[in-house]
């Protein structure tokens, strides 16, 4: 196999820390081994997301596919389980998996066309339609959403009183999260975890299919928030951000038949957690908040206010 030219953005992952650097060092050999064992031919330039290398390949049968090599972490550990459970219904189809080496062989979709290419409210309706297909009873292997939320909420409770997030929002989020953790309806459904415009690609067998699940046993109402915080420049450009956020929210809730109050409460929890993580990152790195941090926290607060 010809050596793969890894994208510069992928190689920059080494700057994230030693674990990333070790994974990158081992990646060329892993790619060579998988390509040889699975009898694949590389037929396009390597791509990457935030945590994975994606390589266009062709199987020995001539079927086009992509090989995905993920950095090992708990969010991707059960990706193959979720993909196998759906078997291509609303989501990219899994052809083959080696979970121990964090390698997947997937149906090839149109990487250059995602839901950012269409009107944002039309995209919300498409995603709402996909919810009903991908939200199935959770396989038993999946971690529970509440196990994550319980841990994150512990961190929220430690936020300083003078943190740049309105205290009433912090207290509201803490109370809601505690209620969700105690609620049996917060688990039992397989959810994507990070479903937004870039994670829905055009396909040949269907107009649109979901990619890159982070499967958990959770609550389908948890899924709404990423559709609100992505494509943010478009919301700002309207000059009426609150209205723009609410239009997206109701497009999703109404088309998917979600409970408005429950979806709203999950948005509040998720946005406060997002703001908290920005504050934690700056503290752990021993630096003051930068412009991007402040803008992100402001965006999180703005979305919570729009839910009021």
- Please tell me the overall pLDDT: 96
CATH architecture term of the largest domain: Alpha-Beta Complex
CATH C-level class of the largest domain:
Alpha Beta
Q: Element order, helices and strands?
A: HHEEEEHEEEHHHEEEEHHHHH
Question: How many individual β-strands?
Answer: 11
Global geometry? globular
Unreliable stretches covering 5 or more consecutive residues = none
> Which radius of gyration do the C-alpha atoms yield?
20 Å
Give a verbal description of the structure.
This protein has helices spanning 8-11, 18-37, 79-86, 120-134, 145-156, 167-182, 225-229, 232-237, 241-256, 260-284, 291-306; strands at 41-42, 47-48, 52-58, 64-70, 94-98, 103-107, 110-114, 189-191, 200-202, 208-210, 216-218. With 308 residues, the chain is of the alpha+beta class. It has 2 domains: 8-108, Phosphorylase Kinase, domain 1 (2-Layer Sandwich); 113-306, Aminoglycoside 3'-phosphotransferase, Chain: A, domain 2 (Alpha-Beta Complex). Helix 5 (145-156) packs antiparallel against helix 6 (167-182). The N and C termini lie far apart (57 Å).
